[in-house]
Amino acid sequence: MNEKDAIKRLREGDKTAFKYLFELFYDRLVAYILTYTNDKMLAEDIVQQVFLNLWNGRAKLNEIKNPKSYLYTMVYNLFIDSRKHEKKVNKLLDNIYEKALRERIKEDKSLIDLRIKKMNAIIETLPPKCREILKMNKVQGFKYKEIAEILGISIKTVENQMGLAYKKVRKAFENPSLILFLIKSRNLLKFN
Q1: How far apart are CA 163 and CA 134, in angstroms?
Q2: Which residues belong to any copy of the RNA polymerase sigma factor 70 region 4 type domain (predicted)?
């Protein structure tokens, strides 16, 4: 049996003709498409799909003058189709990833906003002098020595007040229920 006879007999449903073509071309086609894919499993999947398509479409086969070229073309075309499909899937996955990332950024912004609200609520509960020193340092950018000169107090007093402020902020962030209480209290004070 030769390739052309095998195609004619395949058209009639001859399984031995199919087996003949499979055994003759399978390894060659895998090696050929492997040069494009660099992935043996993918190359084997493509070639197996081509033979499956060949068997399922056998009744539609017209006279094929060069079965070898026909099979190589089928394998190459299926490879190209799989690449297009892969690109579509990757694009879809990229879009999903980008959307998830945008959502995450929005969530992170919400968390930052919440942390700022928490921080402001905590700062508002500090004693007036401590709050003033903290704001002068962190908001206005004054150094401890400058704050001491402006307020007419010692640098040690500024350091102690800043230490007190840091301690209360840390403690509040360690205790979430305290933060919620402070935020609610602050909001109640604003509305009353």
Answers
A1: 10
A2: 121-168
Amino acid identity of residue 115, one-letter, is R
Asked whether the predicted pLDDT for residue 181 surpasses 70, the reply is no
DSSP the chain: --HHHHHHHHHTT-HHHHHHHHHHHHHHHHHHHHHHH--HHHHHHHHHHHHHHHHHTGGG----S-HHHHHHHHHHHHHHHHHHHHHHHHHHHHHHHHHHHHHHHHHHHHHHHHHHHHHHHHHHTS-HHHHHHHHHHHTS---HHHHHHHHT--HHHHHHHHHHHHHHHHHHHH-HHHHHHHHHHHHHHHH-
Q: CATH says 125-191 is which class?
A: mainly alpha
Q: Is the pLDDT of residue 52 over 80?
A: yes
* Threshold 0.85, pTM exceeds: no
For residues 64 and 3, give the distance between their C-alpha atoms in angstroms, rounded to a whole number: 9
